[in-house]
Design a protein that fits this description.
Keywords: Signal. InterPro entries: Class_I_gatase-like, DJ-1/PfpI, HMBD, INH-QAR. By secondary structure, this protein is an alpha/beta fold. The chain has two domains: 47 residues, no CATH class; 192 residues, 3-Layer(aba) Sandwich (Rossmann fold). It has ten helices and 14 strands. The strands form four sheets. An eight-stranded mixed β-sheet has the order 7-4-3-8-9-13-12-14. Helix 3 links the parallel strand 3 and strand 4. Helix 3 runs parallel beside helix 8 and helix 8 runs antiparallel to helix 9. It is globular. The termini are far apart.
């Protein structure tokens, strides 16, 4: 009798396993969500996306549908007149190809000029910009670009924003808004002393690519913004998503957690 019961339990277990096994017809290969037309493409074999070049991932159609239906995280790029091109362009590539929705905001909707070269028309002004999960600021003309109305706008976004992200001297905007108080931060290497003097309640570090305080990430200058953005993507969507974005960008300089992650440092 005992042998018969064991046999029946084994049959039930095998039957359950067979029922949960995914039918190959329900599987396909897809491009990682990158807010491009290729998000809608379906591939029948592994490889790279013919549209954007990213490595394909295998998913069930149901999982893909659920992923597509999820509202992407939003990133607000505040851009001031004179903003450094690579400060924002590098992170914009990272967040965009990692499936985040990025939009630009400036003090007004008037065109701004980056480094005297690139003309940019902001999507919104500080008067009508929607809330975002991530608020990002960047260097270039920081002494004039972050005036009282802009700082007041940043302060007004504190409760609705999950993460604050700055590149280069964009950290000065957060300092003026009081977000660096009792926090550890970094900035452009020639502005380390200036940031520390301006905001003595902060601890400003040099020789570090980025500093992660939890919901506040500041990076060193210019190209370091790419590292910080990849770190934030890894933090929010997993290291695989960040590696896929870095691979697509052919950015082989990124080393996960190369910066200072304070939550890790306290362990």
């Amino acid at each position: 009798m005992k042998t018969l019961l064991l046999f029946l339990f084994a049959c039930l277990a095998l039957s359950a396993g067979a029922q949960t096994k995914t039918n190959p017809k329900d599987m396909a290969y897809f491009c990682p969500l990158c807010n491009s037309d290729c998000d809608k493409l379906v591939f029948d074999k592994p490889g790279t996306c013919s549209h954007c070049g990213m490595a394909l991932v295998q998913q069930t159609f149901a999982d893909r549908k659920a992923e597509v239906s999820q509202k992407p995280m939003t990133v607000c790029f505040y851009l001031q007149d004179g903003v450094e091109v690579l400060d924002f362009a590098g992170p914009m590539e990272v967040f965009s190809y990692a499936g985040f929705h990025v939009f630009t905001v400036s003090k007004t909707k008037d065109p701004i000029v980056s480094q005297g070269i690139l003309k940019i028309i902001p999507d919104y002004s500080i008067q009508d910009a929607p809330p975002a999960d991530i608020l990002a600021t960047f260097g270039g003309n920081a002494s004039q670009g972050f005036d009282e109305p802009v700082v007041a706008w940043i302060k007004s976004r504190e409760k609705a924003t999950s993460y604050f992200f700055s590149v280069c001297t964009g950290a000065f905007a957060f300092g003026k808004a009081g977000l660096l108080d009792n926090k550890t931060a970094t900035t452009f290497h020639l502005s380390i002393e200036g940031l520390q003097k301006s905001f003595p309640k902060a601890k400003v570090l040099s020789d570090v690519r980025f500093v992660d305080n939890g919901n506040l990430i500041t990076t060193a200058g210019i190209s370091a913004g790419i590292d910080g953005a990849l770190h934030l993507v890894a933090k929010l969507k997993g290291e695989a998503a960040a590696k896929a974005a870095a691979q697509y960008m052919e950015y082989d300089k990124w080393i996960p957690k190369e910066g200072l992650v304070l939550s890790d440092a306290k362990k």
